[in-house]
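RECORD TYPE: inverse folding
INPUT: structure tokens
STRUCTURE:
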């Protein structure tokens, strides 16, 4: 009996060793067969990320310990006297690097820590610095976090670059903290009244958050026409929601001649009332109520205080009249946010030292509200009638405008969708955002109850909102809405998402593009071109006609995927240049010189790279 028990134990141990060795061999065999797996986001899992991380840490001569947190893994290790940890989530291809407790100070220095964290985060795109409070010890702990995407080839370099960057920010934080304490040494640090007010404010926010979870009474939204105002424009384009206008200088220039044949003198005026400045209707500077041109150009110089950091800044706006189309007069708004001068608080790399310029097209529509309402009501009734008609081809009879609103049961949301899409197609992205966002606010709460047609309408709505934000260079806001529709794998959605992350200089852009290119080389998912991708499947299946239709459909799909692949490669080259990887970008561009769809782009970008080399030399 004892021998039999020993044999059982030996057999059990042999089985465990076999399973362990087999799992390790399978991971290495899988990485050998699928070298591109690290670039396919859908293929990542906890075990594969852990495998990549182990390889990188061994290459960096780091000893590590692994712990489990439910389905996630926590890897702790030391690198150059720094204690790091990496969380590998089970539901994301990205891992989170954390450099915890790199700075600790007394809780009395809350204002200094908060201010320095904000300054560092404004100038830091790769990492994010946060602080936590320890009520038991009455101290503040400062930490650094960064999201990473590991690959077979770049995992070691990525880890090493981010950790060196963490050490640099640790040194910068300590210097800024010391300088801040020296500057504020003469100020009183204890203020009981301030502490009481802060507590009251925190309590108010807590109660308000509780109220947000309770059902609110239904309020009918206003459908009255609102002109484009100065306050809404600067808030929408530059995100200036917390500004206090000081004064606004307005200069109106007209190209009309007086009785003596001379140009009319420019008219100037200054506004100082903050409410009047915010509510200034921009079209009224160029047109009267009948649509007659009052001025061909209007120059506005706004001086305001940014309440988020109590700095005084200037914003320049130039309005120019453009074409007319029936009852609609178009004009262009060009806005420039002037930079601040360099100082201890404003460094050369900070956002306040950059010149930000955005130019958008707007319009002054002289039609009355009743006429617009009648137009929408007619369009909506026609769409509803066609959409509810019996017959297989009822949906095919709808126009694009009717198809976009026919599945919307809420009249206000339907009108906002209709007007927003109309402005979007006309290139009036600033004006399109207001109705589109209103429709989104109404429809997002109904998503779980929507059918397939209604969800398709909602996805198109998200796409247009994201597109408008990207046109206004508000890429962070655009990313939110485009990220909603990314899992749908439609080419148009994916291209706009790629445009967004590339233009906003997201460090993940190149890795994401590489993953899509690898997917095209080894397809795992079907990337849809649009609404009509599957129409060819409904062609006749009998005789030569069916074969011809199938061949035509395959050729068309191949053409879409080829164009999509070329788009990704062009965007990758652009991103590589922005991130300073000039040699890799030049290699890719030279490959594209002999490709008809990419040759013009490659020539221009190679010329730009040559100019960069000459400037460096």
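DESIGNED SEQUENCE:
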């Amino acid at each position: 009996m004892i021998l039999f028990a020993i044999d059982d134990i030996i057999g059990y141990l042999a089985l465990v060793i076999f399973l362990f060795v087999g799992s390790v061999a399978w991971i290495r065999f899988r990485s050998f067969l699928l070298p591109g797996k690290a670039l396919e986001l859908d293929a990542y899992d906890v075990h594969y990320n852990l495998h990549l991380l182990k390889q990188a840490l061994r290459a960096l001569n780091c000893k590590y310990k692994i712990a489990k947190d439910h389905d996630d893994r926590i890897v702790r290790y030391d690198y150059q006297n720094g204690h790091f940890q990496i969380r590998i989530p089970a539901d994301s291809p990205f891992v989170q690097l954390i450099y915890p407790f790199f700075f600790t100070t007394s809780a009395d220095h809350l204002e200094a820590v908060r201010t320095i964290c904000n300054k560092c985060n404004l100038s830091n795109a790769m990492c994010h610095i946060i602080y936590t409070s320890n009520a038991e010890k009455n101290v503040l702990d400062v930490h650094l976090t960064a999201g990473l995407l590991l690959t077979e080839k770049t995992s070691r370099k990525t880890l090493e670059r981010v950790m060196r960057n963490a050490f640099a920010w640790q040194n910068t934080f300590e210097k800024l903290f010391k300088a801040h304490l020296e500057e504020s040494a003469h100020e009183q640090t204890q203020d009981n009244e301030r502490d009481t007010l802060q507590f009251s404010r925190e309590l108010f926010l807590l109660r308000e958050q509780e109220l947000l979870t309770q059902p609110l009474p239904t309020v009918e939204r206003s459908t009255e026409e609102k002109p484009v105002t100065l306050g809404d424009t600067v808030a929408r384009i530059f995100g200036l929601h917390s500004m206090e206008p000081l004064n606004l200088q307005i200069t109106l220039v007209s190209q009309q001649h007086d009785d003596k044949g001379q140009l009319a003198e420019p008219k100037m005026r200054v506004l100082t009332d903050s409410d009047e400045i915010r509510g200034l209707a921009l079209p009224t500077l160029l047109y009267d109520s009948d649509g007659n041109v009052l001025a061909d150009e209007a120059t506005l110089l706004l001086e305001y205080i940014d309440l988020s950091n109590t700095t005084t800044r200037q914003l320049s706006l130039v309005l120019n009249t453009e074409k007319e189309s029936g009852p609609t007069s178009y004009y262009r708004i060009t806005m420039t946010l002037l930079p601040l001068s360099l100082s201890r608080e404003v460094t050369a790399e900070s956002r306040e030292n950059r010149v930000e310029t955005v130019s958008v097209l707007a319009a002054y529509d002289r039609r009355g509200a009743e006429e617009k309402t009648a137009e929408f009501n007619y369009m909506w009734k026609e769409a509803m009638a066609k959409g509810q008609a019996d017959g297989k081809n009822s949906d095919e009879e709808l126009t694009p405008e009717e198809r976009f609103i026919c599945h919307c049961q809420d009249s206000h949301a339907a009108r906002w969708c209709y007007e927003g899409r109309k402005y979007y197609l006309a290139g009036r992205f600033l004006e399109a955002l207001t109705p589109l966002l209103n429709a989104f606010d109404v429809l997002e709460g109904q998503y779980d109850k929507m059918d397939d047609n209604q969800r398709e309408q909602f996805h198109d709505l998200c796409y247009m909102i994201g597109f408008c934000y990207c046109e206004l260079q508000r890429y962070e806001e655009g990313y939110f809405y485009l990220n909603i529709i990314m899992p749908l794998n439609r080419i148009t959605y994916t291209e706009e998402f790629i445009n967004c992350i590339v233009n906003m200089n997201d460090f993940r852009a190149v890795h994401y593009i590489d993953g899509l290119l690898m997917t095209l080389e080894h397809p795992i998912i079907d990337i849809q071109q649009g609404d009509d991708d599957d129409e060819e499947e409904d062609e006749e299946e009998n005789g030569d006609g069916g074969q011809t239709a199938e061949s035509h459909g395959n050729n068309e799909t191949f053409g879409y995927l080829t164009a999509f692949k070329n788009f990704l490669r062009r965007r990758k080259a652009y991103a590589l240049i922005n991130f300073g990887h000039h040699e890799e970008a030049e290699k890719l561009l030279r490959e594209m010189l002999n490709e008809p769809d990419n040759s013009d782009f490659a020539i221009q970008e190679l010329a730009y790279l040559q100019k960069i080399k000459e400037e460096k030399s």
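NOTES: The radius of gyration is 30 Å.
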